[in-house]
Design goal:
With 303 residues, this protein is mainly α. It is built from 14 helices and three strands. It has two domains: 87 residues, DNA polymerase, domain 1 (Orthogonal Bundle), CATH 1.10.150; 171 residues, Intergrase catalytic core (hpI Integrase, Chain A, Orthogonal Bundle), CATH 1.10.443. The longest helix has 20 residues.
Length: 303
């Protein structure tokens, strides 16, 4: 730690003792960890940072090699909020980067219904087309995986929302005052969508401005989930649902090296805390891989 950091910690400890904080050591420990993070990653002092440092440090805790529980991370953030509140009272700073910072939802569990890249390819490449509705369902799952969309976003697509030339879809976000979000659509997704639209044209079927029939999204979701159960059983895959495609693609691109903010943008998450759950999946997956394949771990198992 720097001399400046050591001096402020001494002053902060006195402040905690005067307030009779029984867990003063935990507060000091959390601040020390944060100082180490600043020294190694930001190279700025605690009173020189910007508002975004709170977001960045929360992401750092979520993705750290040492796996912290969500409750532990929230406690660390709360202690830093108290530390910066102390700095504000002393007028050492003018803003608190941890004030009103979103905490992690402790009840939120790691998604389990995620297919590997190879298993996802098996499902998509071998999805059976046995009746006309299956053409529609195939186009939907290609978009769900290719663009990481929600089922409600896909079934509400309009023809004007598809730009085949540039390879983008435009999603109207009902939760965000009708704001339109630009989403990448892969070549495979667009190819499947073209096949579906060609089938509609040849069959003289029209849904007006919409791409898919104007059933409610839950009706198509139930229809697709039933089809997915049959397909996963036939292909001997873990059973997944419509939302599993979004979970899977987020995890896959993280494993390939995308950073958390790129995944947030891809999924259209308003808050990065929603996206951070996928980093837990990647870390859990890495732990399992090491346990299964690392030679030292195998030696231990043999003994």
């Amino acid at each position: 730690m720097t001399a400046k950091q050591e001096n402020i910690l001494k002053e902060y400890r006195r402040y905690l003792e005067l307030k009779s904080i029984k867990t003063a050591n935990q507060y000091i420990s959390s601040v020390k960890e944060y100082f180490n993070y600043l020294n190694e990653n930001v190279e700025k002092e605690f009173d020189e940072i910007s508002r975004s440092i709170g977001d960045d440090y929360r992401t750092y805790l979520v993705t750290a090699e040492v796996v912290f529980s969500r409750l532990t991370i929230n406690n660390k953030l709360n202690r830093l909020n108290s530390f910066y509140h102390f700095l504000l009272k002393k007028r050492y700073i003018y803003s608190n980067p941890f004030y009103k910072l979103d905490r992690l939802k402790t009840g939120k569990t790691i998604p389990k219904n995620i297919l590997s890249v190879n298993d996802m390819a098996r499902l998509l490449d071998n999805f059976s087309i046995l009746k006309p509705d299956d053409i529609m369902l195939k186009s939907i799952i290609e978009i769900l995986y290719g663009s990481g969309l929600r089922i409600s976003e896909v079934v509400n697509l309009k023809l004007k929302d598809i730009d085949f030339e540039s390879g983008y879809l435009y999603i109207t976000e009902g939760k965000n005052n009708g704001k339109r979000r630009k989403v990448v659509a892969g070549e495979v997704s667009l190819k499947s969508l073209k096949q579906y639209l060609r089938y509609l044209n040849e069959s003289c079927i029209s849904y007006g401005d919409f791409v898919y029939p104007r059933k409610c999204s839950t009706t198509i979701m139930c229809q697709l989930n039933a089809k997915l159960r049959r397909e996963c059983k036939r292909l001997n895959l873990k059973t997944i649902t419509t939302h599993s495609f979004r979970h899977s693609v987020a995890t896959h691109i993280l494993r390939k090296g995308a950073n958390i903010r790129e995944v947030q943008e891809f999924l259209g998450h308003k808050r990065i805390t929603t996206t951070e759950i996928y980093t837990r999946v990647v870390k859990e997956d890495l732990k399992n891989v090491i346990g299964k394949y690392h030679p030292r771990e195998l030696e231990e198992q043999d003994e």
